[in-house]
Amino acid sequence: MSEQPSAEHSVRAVLQRLESLRRAGVTHLRKAPAGAEPGAAPAALPAASIPESSSLPREPMPSKSAQKAKSPAAAFRVEALAEVERRVAGCTRCAELAASRTQTVFGVGNPNARLVFLGEAPGADEDRQGEPFVGRAGMLLTDIIEKGMKLRRSDVYICNILRCRPPENRTPLPVEAANCREYLDAQLAIIQPEFICCLGTVAAQNLLGVSTPIGQLRGRFLDYQGIKVICTYHPAYVLRNPAAKRHVWDDIQMLMAEMGLEVPKKSK
């Protein structure tokens, strides 16, 4: 009897599988049939070749009604993320989190995004709805994106260090962040953003592998594997400490200028 793949199957293997399919001239993957094993390899549909992942063109995320007309590059990103998300849904590496969660919270937004917002972990609202940043802190983040940056929430990509809610919203444990890091690395490798905005201490320290306080990390650009990173306070912290809003807006304006977005002129 053949050995069944484990739900803990490495995401790196998934990405390697996707890359081998791309090199073989595959642009689309069939959805796994109902009841398929969590580790089952994706089925392939032969088609024209996909450009090298390092040169995948960036395109605006189409509306839902237009998503059927995705380019091969955009479709590859969408399907690669969907495959990793399926792996995440069956993950039980953190036994406590797997036992207490309602569902995993993978990420949401434009798979072709130039900008990724990276938070800490899902809260109660996120655990219930399966989408990051949908509670009060999420509403503030949406205002930052839409009212401040003049973008749509769907223009960016939003995810967290963890994909499961820690009990009582406690700070993620180092081992939990380590267990989930492979999934974050996979998301970033697929999306290939130009910018990451770390929201809060946990996001910044875990991404960058530092112990520097957020107050010393913010206000400047840092580098993560060639991606420009800016760190700022978490929206939940701003809700508790309204005075921090000014600092966050300063950081966001720095980000906007670096991205080539129009920055509001300061009133005299």
What is the beta-strand fraction? 5-15%
Q: Which regions contain 5 or more consecutive residues with pLDDT less than 50?
A: 1-10, 29-56, 59-69
**Structural class assignment:** alpha/beta
Tell me, what's the shape?
A: globular
Descriptive overview:
This protein is α/β, with parallel strands linked by helices and 268 residues long. It has 2 domains: 11-61 and 68-89, no CATH class; 105-259, Uracil-DNA Glycosylase, subunit E (3-Layer(aba) Sandwich), CATH 3.40.470. Helix content is 40%, strand content 13%. The chain contains 10 helices and 8 strands. The protein has helices spanning 11-23, 72-89, 95-100, 124-129, 136-148, 174-191, 201-208, 214-217, 235-240, 245-259, and strands spanning 26-30, 43-46, 108-109, 115-119, 157-160, 195-199, 221-224, 227-232. A 6-stranded mixed beta sheet has the order 3-5-4-6-8-7, with helices on both faces. Strands 1-2 form a two-stranded antiparallel sheet. A hairpin with a 2-residue loop joins strand 7 (221-224) and strand 8 (227-232). The longest helix is centred in the first third of the chain and has 18 residues, at 72-89. The model is unreliable at 1-10, 29-56 and 59-69 (pLDDT under 50).
